[in-house]
Specification:
Number of strands: 11
Distance between the termini: 77 Å
Order of helices and strands: HHHHEHEEHEEHEHHEHEEHEE
Structural class: alpha/beta
Strand order of the largest sheet: 2-1-3-4-5-10
Helix content: 25-40%
Length: 324
Amino acid sequence: LADVARRAGGSVAAVSRVLSRPGMVSPATRNAVEQAVRATGYRVNHAARNLRKQRTGAVVALVPNLGNPFFAKIVSGLGQQLALGGYDLLVGDTMDEGGRHRALDRFLDPSRADGIVLMDGQVTARDLAALPGAPPVVMACEWIERSDLPRVVLDNAAGTGLAVRHLLGLGHTRIGWIGGPPDNVLHKARCDGIAAALGRLPPGYPGDFSLASGAAAAARWLAEPPGARPTGVIAFSDEMAAGFMGALARAGVSVPGAVSVIGFDDIEWVAHLPTPLTTIRQPKRDLGRMAARVLMARIAGQQVAAETVLNPELVVRASTCPPA
């Protein structure tokens, strides 16, 4: 700064104001400093600035499975909004190769990040409570039951309610579903939506949101007597819906001729399947942007809503039709 100030013919304080709050100085001073910056090749040392302000300038997003394409657009929206606030985005995977949770203390360290966006609802409130001095945390997509952390989520029950009403409108009366892990909050909320729309929760097939569990559900469907099989199936993720449809196709079963299928999430490639998938769309980029806004408000010490809820949308494609 001293080198730039000497070349610009001004003070170090004036140079600092031009670099941080240019609207507070005269055009002549601003022009002189900008010319001196270009001539000297001066760059702001962001690490030093953040150290002085006792901040890192970074936010960490913790995702339970970076290989899942569902999270890509959430992270994209998160990064775009954080950049507007001057934050860099770092991304970590909470799961190791064996499907076990990593130790979170290295992520929830205030020397690494000014805030955390946590997208893994399997992390427990006890895990977080054991880390005093952690930076502000906001939940996104998933949430921790009985936790007071602010969260930005989809109305998951409304999503499966839309799916049920679509199938009922087509004339389906035998409706089944493919769930997630039984203790997962998304699974519970989506079951609630089906139960509310039907007045009861019909039998479903177990799953874990993966392609393989969708294929396993298809094997169970095929093993049932034809007159007892659901004619409409709601999968709690697009990947399970795709696995279900792929296994049925290999068995020579028509979708939607023999069974209508609805997914959940609207990840990009399901519109390009051989039978494009009817699904429940989550506004993923909006969810990421909103999570970033809530987190930046918390970092700034502002009060935020305990819960911000976004609405789902039914996207009708070729995988549903009236029952045969």
